[in-house]
Amino acid sequence: MAKILSFLSWNVENFHNQKERVDRVVQLIADHNPDVLGLYEVKGKDVFAAMVAKMPNYVFSITESPGVPEILVGIRNGLSGFVTQKDELQSKVPTLRPGALVTITLGNEGYSFLFLHLKSFPDPRSWGLRDDMFAHVAKLKRAIDKRLPRGEKANFIALGDVNTMGMRPAYNDQLDIIGAQELSFVDQRMSAAVNAMRRLSKTHDETWWGGGDTPPSDLDHAFAADHLKLRSFGGAELKVVGWVDKRTAAEKCKWISDYSDHSLLYGEIV
């Protein structure tokens, strides 16, 4: 099947203007040559300027929220694209990150990519905020569906670092929810008939590791409209690239130091 659009999503933790690291990150992105990309935890205008200088064949936008690491999105030149900041993803908490909605038009078809960086931490408040954020994702998908002729569904993908790490209330381990359970709850919400979305399979489940004693976690995901077809990477719909590809702990830790504690996600709509 021919590629329609390729996309890349990556939390480049604490991404600021360290020249060598910026060069490495930009080169890895360029190697994948995505049509649309989203980077999370971008700090400061210097990175934005570096991306513009080093990737001149893209148009870049960045979310704006005071004191919050931003989401930077890029669209390849020649594509008809529009970027909208979705403040409702902050769940009325100014210190949280808005979403970045990229809409690409190809002929008569629109393709929407909602880049996300949801609330971290496993305390009940953070879990509740993530739950509310996922509700906004589903609501946005339904709103786009309603704008289309009857019976048509939006070409929609929501993706990013969604931080599905579960919930651990203080002094009450009877209510503990592990990350896999939270992800299962999200799957149920997204797959409901009114939302008609599925979580895309990945070449590796765990995408985050801090390089220490804490075990790797399954935090980065993409949820796509059911009807969308994606290229297969050995039977998976998303390719995970990063520390997961290294064999030894030392090699993994070096990659984390050089790039990020998150591996990137890459996919192609076909």
Properties at a glance:
270 residues, alpha+beta, Deoxyribonuclease I, Chain A, six-stranded mixed β-sheet, 12 strands, globular
Structure description:
- By secondary structure, the chain is an alpha+beta fold.
- The chain has a single domain (5-269), classed as Deoxyribonuclease I, Chain A (4-Layer Sandwich).
- Helix content is 26%, strand content 29%.
- It has helices at residues 19-32, 45-54, 124-146, 179-191, 249-258, and strands at residues 5-15, 36-42, 58-62, 70-76, 80-86, 99-106, 109-117, 155-161, 197-199, 220-225, 239-241, 264-269.
- Strand 7, helix 3 and strand 8 form a beta-alpha-beta unit.
- The longest helix has 23 residues, at 124-146.
- The protein is globular.
- It starts with a strand and ends with a strand.
- Major beta sheet, specifics? 6 strands, mixed
Number of domain units: 1
Averaging pLDDT over every residue, what do you get? 94
Rg from alpha-carbon coordinates: 18 Å
The CATH superfamily appears as: Endonuclease/exonuclease/phosphatase
Strand content: 25-35%
Please bin the fraction of helical residues: 25-40%
End-to-end Cα distance: 6 Å
Shape: globular
CATH class designation: Alpha Beta
Number of continuous helical runs: 5
**So, CATH architecture?**
4-Layer Sandwich
Quaternary structure: single chain
Low-confidence segments, given as residue ranges, are none
* Protein structure class: alpha+beta
Strand order, sheet with most strands: 3-4-2-1-12-11
Q: Order of helices and strands, N to C?
A: EHEHEEEEEHEHEEEHE
CATH-derived topology: Deoxyribonuclease I, Chain A
The overall strand count is 12
